[in-house]
Design brief:
Pfam families: HNH (PF01844). Keywords: Endonuclease, Hydrolase, Nuclease. By secondary structure, the chain is α+β, with helices and mostly antiparallel strands. 44% of the residues lie in helices and 11% in strands. The protein has helices spanning 10-22, 25-37, 42-46, 66-69, 80-91; strands at 55-58, 75-78, 97-98, 104-105. The strands form 2 sheets. It has a two-stranded antiparallel ribbon with strand order 1-2. A two-stranded antiparallel sheet has the order 3-4. Strand 3 (97-98) and strand 4 (104-105) form a beta hairpin. The protein starts with 9 loop residues before the first helix and ends with a strand. It binds zinc ion (ZN).
Length: 106
């Protein structure tokens, strides 16, 4: 949607771009493929807890990068609790380190 008011601030323009990515058929297919392969929260599984995943999360933040966004190896199914906990950690500025297997190191 074009804005008649001219410039929008960078952050909301970026957020709007992200939302467009989540609206694509490509993303919806990818998300379903991830959940078909692993319907359980991978973080719960590491603690031997079985929880159905609510969201498909990007392991490395994509920042609008299409390669990272559509990279199946960059996706993990998470329950809402783990997804929200992760986001809160990022907001607090906790650095998340990734191991050689691509999973966050705790
Ligand atoms: Zn979980």
């Amino acid at each position: 949607m074009e804005s008649a008011r001219g410039r929008v601030d960078g952050r909301s323009a970026e957020a709007a771009e992200y939302r467009k990515l989540y609206d694509t058929a490509r993303w919806k297919r990818l998300r379903e493929a991830v959940r078909a392969e692993q319907p359980l929260c991978v973080m719960c599984l590491r603690d031997d807890v079985v929880t159905e995943a609510d969201v498909v999360d990007h392991i490395k933040p994509h920042h609008g990068d299409h390669l990272l966004f559509f990279d199946m190896s960059n996706l993990q199914p998470l329950c809402k609790q783990h997804h929200d906990r992760d986001k809160q950690q990022m907001e607090r500025g906790t650095y998340i380190e990734f191991g050689p297997d691509g999973w966050p190191v705790e």
